[in-house]
Amino acid sequence: MDDLVFNPFGFSQHDDPYAVYKRMRDEAPLYWNPELDFWALTRFDDVQEGFRDTDLLSSAGGIALENRRPIGQSPGFDQMIEFDPPEHTVLRKLVSRVFTIRTVAKMEHEIRTIFTTYLDKVIERGSAEVVNDLTSPYPMDVISAVLGVPEADREALRISSDKIMIREDGVMSVPPEAAEGMFGLLEYFMADLPKRRAGKGSGLINDLVDVEFEGRRLTEEELLGFCVLFVIAGHETTTKMVANALELLSRHPEQKAAVAADLDLVPDVIEEVLRFHNSTQYMHRTLTRDHEMYGRQMSAGDSVLLVIGAANHDDREFGPTAEEFDIFRRPERHLSFGYGAHFCLGAALARMEGKVALEEIFRRIPDYEVDHDAKVRFHSSNVTGWKSLPISFPAGVGAGV
């Protein structure tokens, strides 16, 4: 076990981080990294309990290892994802009143129109770079439509959102490009919110400006935090999820053929991709008090990583085939959207976007092939997926469908 090293700053470059996770689950279910000063939990039950127990494991110290800070130290603007109950509960109730499953369901036609617009652009040429041509601009347009961001502003927001995720291999500090991306989003919404308060525009941002619960309204800082969070999370999750699905299915031709023959399997594909290769591999938490676990003493203020990618491959939960990609698995649960108080507010939207994209791809270009020699992994501390995923297909076959 002495040679077991888990360094999240660079793991997404490796072909198989899950082999490391397996050793951690079997040999070091409570792993300590002395160089980077963090604990890591990798077993399903432990990670699930870590999400549930917000009294012991706080989000207020930051949700990413490179952005961790002492609990109580302000990050500069308020984000619900970095609050604990009861403050988090109040904020979630406010947002949940306007961001509902029913609202998402009503958007399916608009979401489908957005995706097919991008798909139409590549059909005739018989090739595409999935990320740049399809899965990156598509979710940005969707979340922008939800928020009410004008079409002319969406490309700039996408560029800023992409920059925020940039990390250097093996480096804990946030690089200048990522800081620049965050400042870009903040500057945009700082200029936009006064217009919304004046009654201009429409969409979720306007709804959030007006929403009230038990006499409580969102502050300017909270509104700013929500706007930034929705753009980052709404863009990144779907960008990686759809590309991950296409890449995985290309390496499992029998399952790919099954989906092409029966589009009703698409929701099952989404759930298995989320389980098997979720874009978010871990979430950071901070211990609020001394705590003993697996015979080891942890101290208040320590960093703890809830390693979702490892938990979702735990054979204690998913059986002896946990390390296999199987769209027929139909797992009753996974942790890709978190658990408990911080269960992802945008889960329904992400699932809808994934469903629409895969249905349209398999309806129009089911014979796509991935150029595995040319694909390039995305590098980040806790996000995995593809920076570039070239595909080819019979030119024009799906045109006008």
Q: Can you characterise this structure?
A:
- It is built from 16 helices and 12 strands.
- The chain has 401 residues and is α+β, with helices and mostly antiparallel strands.
- Helix 7 runs antiparallel to helix 11 and helix 13 crosses helix 16.
Q: How would you describe this structure in keywords?
A:
Cytochrome p450, three-stranded antiparallel beta sheet, globular, single chain, 401 residues, alpha+beta, 16 helices
Helix-strand sequence? HEEHEHHHEHHHHHHHHEEEEHHHEEEE
Query: What would you give as the CATH superfamily?
Result: Cytochrome P450
Kindly state the percentage of residues in helix.
40-55%
The biggest beta sheet reads: 5 strands, mixed
Task: Using the coordinates shown, work out and report the CATH topology.
Answer: Cytochrome p450
Shape: globular
- CATH class group: Mainly Alpha
Query: What is the multimeric organization of the chains shown?
Result: single chain
**Please, how many domains?**
1
Q: What is the beta-strand fraction? A: 5-15%
What's the β-strand tally?
Answer: 12
The number of helical runs is 16
Cα gyration radius (Å): 21 Å
CATH architecture: Orthogonal Bundle
The spatial strand order of the largest sheet comes to 1-2-8-5-3
